[in-house]
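quick one before i forget lol
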Amino acid sequence: MTAAPALTPTSRVLTWCLHLLLVALLALAAVRAVADGSPEAGAIVAAAVTCAVVYAAGPLLPRVRTSRRAALWWLVAVGLVWLVLLVLTADGVWVAFPLYFLQLHLLPRRQGLVAVIVTALAAITAFTAHQGAFVPAAAIGPALGAAVAVAVVWGYQALYRESERRRDLIEELTATRADLAEAQHEAGVLAERERLAHEIHDTLAQGLSSIQLLLRAAERTLPDTAGNAARYVEQARQAAADNLAEARRFVVALSPPALDDTTLADALDRLCATTSARHRIAARFRLSGDVVPLPTAYEVALLRIGQAALANTVRHADASTADVTLCYGGEHVTLAVVDDGVGFDPEHSAFGLTAMRTRIEALNGSLTVESSPGHGATVSARLPKESP
């Protein structure tokens, strides 16, 4: 069975109104029976009280609130007691109206509609039996009430689903904006580091290299007797060499933290291991082809797409396995993330996929998504090996 929508403050108010309506209608049937001096007044009052007690058990018993099966049996019990009241008095017909809402809320769409129709037919039949003849008004009241209940409940459920869909879209948009902000920040940091690297390479590193060459030449031209001077020159040359090595290390250290002192393949392998350790999913990494050096921007883009695709798999796919493959083949390098989850419709792709596609296309690459509901998903990013 499908789960009933979670209660919101508005739906809680409506639920309490339904409770009060049912109790009021039961009380009306009991009071009218006593006031009219009906021979079955005692039985009617007992049936009305029993129905109220059984109905009250639903909201009060934890088992009924948490178990679909228990809720179904509770609904059957309320219906049986109502039928007894309906046999005893025609006033029981009016209780059918709140029962419509109860059935439509607790039962799946088709079964709920069938239960409402059966309840309406029972109300019409009982009212006709009490009147001793069929009157059109006896059919119009329960039938109209059933139609109103179906329209109200189905309309509310449609609005609830639309609200949930909009909430999911807003959450995804918020997350995507945060990812884009982070990506823009990282791009700015990377651009600044590249600028500094070029400046250091063109100025400081070249200057230190020149100093080292000049000191080496001076060391060779000094006479053997100038020991102290030669020692000082050697110390200055060694300091220049050490600082030149530091400058060169800074120039080449342009990768993001996940790529520090490691390769793209190692970073993806560590990402899969971390994902498997933190979540209930077996994430596996596979490397194919001969590894070739890639521009830093390429490695950053592929790593970010792998992180985003695995995060989407963990968050939305309900998958048990995910395979991440980095393939160096031909003139392109390809990263593919394949899962065995619930899948989705690529025609209604999320903002996260749009961000991935924008990132990869900015580097003259391409992103393809293959999925269908119930058949997992494949996200594949492809980049040329040579930067444009």
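fyi The longest helix spans residues 136-221.
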